[in-house]
Amino acid sequence: MAQPLRIGIAGLGNVGASVFQLLSEHGDMLLERTGREVRITAVSARSKLKNRNIDISKVKWHDNPVDVANDPEVDVVVELMGGSSGPALDLVKKALDLGKPVVTANKALLASRGAEVLDLLKKSKGSVSFEAAVAGGIPVIKGLREGLAANRIKAVYGILNGTCNFILSEMSHTGAAFATVLKEAQEKGYAESDPSFDIDGVDAAHKLSILSGLAFGCVPDVKHIEIKGIRGITPLDIAFASDLGFRIKLLGIARQAEGGIEQSVEPCLVPSDSPIAAVEGALNAVYIDGDYVGKVLLMGYGAGGNPTASAVVSDIVDVARGRALPLMGIASERVSSLKAANILARKGSYYIRLMVLDQPGVIADISAILRDHKVSLESVLQRGRDPHQAVPVILTTHETTEESIRRVAEQISKLKSVTEPPYLMRIEEFNG
Amino acid sequence: MAQPLRIGIAGLGNVGASVFQLLSEHGDMLLERTGREVRITAVSARSKLKNRNIDISKVKWHDNPVDVANDPEVDVVVELMGGSSGPALDLVKKALDLGKPVVTANKALLASRGAEVLDLLKKSKGSVSFEAAVAGGIPVIKGLREGLAANRIKAVYGILNGTCNFILSEMSHTGAAFATVLKEAQEKGYAESDPSFDIDGVDAAHKLSILSGLAFGCVPDVKHIEIKGIRGITPLDIAFASDLGFRIKLLGIARQAEGGIEQSVEPCLVPSDSPIAAVEGALNAVYIDGDYVGKVLLMGYGAGGNPTASAVVSDIVDVARGRALPLMGIASERVSSLKAANILARKGSYYIRLMVLDQPGVIADISAILRDHKVSLESVLQRGRDPHQAVPVILTTHETTEESIRRVAEQISKLKSVTEPPYLMRIEEFNG
Lengths: 432, 432
Prior knowledge:
The structure is a homodimer. The first copy, chain A, has helices spanning 14-25, 27-34, 66-70, 86-97, 107-122, 140-147, 162-174, 178-188, 196-199, 202-216, 235-243, 305-320, 362-372, 402-413, and strands spanning 5-10, 38-44, 60-61, 76-79, 102-104, 128-129, 153-159, 226-227, 246-257, 260-271, 283-290, 294-301, 347-357, 377-382, 390-397, 400-401, 423-427. By secondary structure, chain A is of the alpha/beta class. In chain A, strands 7, 8, 9, 10, 11, 12, 13, 14, 15, 16 and 17 form an eleven-stranded mixed β-sheet that branches. Chain A has a six-stranded parallel β-sheet with strand order 3-2-1-4-5-6, with helices on both faces. The longest helix of chain A is centred in the first third of the chain and has 16 residues, at 107-122. The first copy, chain A, is elongated, with a radius of gyration of 24 Å.
């Protein structure tokens, strides 16, 4: 029998408490699956006395989380505090200094300080595992770094934020406005009281940067990601998209394009009968497109204590089995900076929502602008006529470039009969 | 730099040739991802001269596949001949005798001789990796054995046979009869000239037995699987199911029930708006339901040279990274025989297709039988009236037991006004 693997957990919030519970409840099973006893020996959290429905009386308590790494009776440091600096970073540094493996759910740390973590790893005998940092319980890091390791990755994309997906699903089912559904989501605990990190696409961008790093062997870096959140989506868009055979989803997309990697987080139209359209509520889903395997979809719960704990403990199982891998799947010295493609060069078809005064000649003016920029119309939808106020007109285009569509939007917004700036969304059918 | 990993491939059919091509094409990438050169040194196949669009002139040729294992310049034996006995078994035995790792796509071998392979492994320093044996390119073995290793698995189920899924998808889209679509599938190469292995559910059962073994730490064994294929499905069933809000899919299901593991392969009704209903054509999809993670879905191409090669080479990557695992994820000595649940005790709701003469009192007779067996009706559909010949009547039930529904079917088939045996399908909503 191998030595027990001694676990120190820093951070006992929702996820930390679930990890504690899982390790306590499934001790026998984990012993069978790893050949080693997996034993929690130390914890640290903000408050020792908070009720978490777990019994921490038999493990050592550290007031300072960094002491979890320093503890000689801790073999693996589980960092569940979050944050890209401060105690989380200090703890990871200390653990790697001491050559101890780290397991973390901290996406902000990897997305903002990927280069720093890679530098630390070059000098350390330790490792950093982060299955829980992206898409909660879905084993997407393992899928990308191991399961599809035989493939050159063409693209990785999907629904990476459960809060946005819940809001868009609810808007779709109820026809309610964004603000109404957001409030409901906040009441149910699906959205934070300050929801901007989720609904403005920042959380999804953090996750995408990590997937992109794995897919293309690069340092995760959010700064190359084009980000648009879901605040601008109206019940009108949901209804028109549905009539056109689409659902609206906030997608993170990273793909190999001419000249580099294209990365974006933005609401997109996806075909109603596609599997990704059927991903409802707080679920996440990630497609990985490899040159030999084709497209593989992974779907499941992207957040929550128990699903995230499943991912954290799968990393612990890998450490116990002696199988931790380099951060980005290749030697840290070989990880390069990401070469970003010019976003203006990207191709695609688009959905354009306009609010126009219902006057003779409006559509002719708009059509002329499209023609001048060589953008070809796929469809024009207008609902309702009202001479006294603006009415919605929806255009969809055939394939064009981001540059052309932006110029079109700019020109259209200058028309007197157009009362608000055009709202653009990409139509993603992923047929490539 | 570590030593090169020298690969011997036995079997150069569709998959073997793709593996050869992948390893040749992605040599640099695999070197980067594993830290070792992955080099093919030897091959064996039935005919040396067959044109496969690969250049085998620079590797050693063996007429006898077992010599691939004997070759001192082969570190890893890749078995792609198939078959549960004969040369494939001899090759695996020899490789394990010599302590060499084996990578295989051979589901029949594992499903029929799992216990024998486990015995060989107990005495060997080698390993057997088999990602390609189930669901082609989808990394479901890795997902189950590693990605979700922190969970007690409650169930694993899904679409495991692309031929059947193609046929059912086509029937659904075209309304054509089974025999017509089968012929088309044969012409397109999606079905074998003798299709029974696929359409009678045997192939899916082989795969399910392997998933079940991994999920529950048992020896794979097809003999405990209740198997029904798709020959009996008519366009009527497809249409009625659609009216009721369902699609028909051939599902393999293994789940923890009272008294043991329930295992079945059979056509089932799944809700039309569920992600599994959107799995079309030759795709495969597998759900894994774990106690912490909840339900995780993996979807992708379940067959074909390139997707299967992706899985084979992911196993080679694991071997190159020094990460091969025990066959069933736990020490071979700990793998137990599967304890099967009594299939008659399983619960569920059912779809029943009857052909009845449209005479007064028929529905009353049928209803009385249901009542006598305490089976509660959810809906009754009848289309068309014709006093001269039998018309279809579709019943759906609330939850009952397999035993009750079989008795009901038996009683109903004895009614004079019922012209053919009732056709039963389970309704699987997977809400549990």
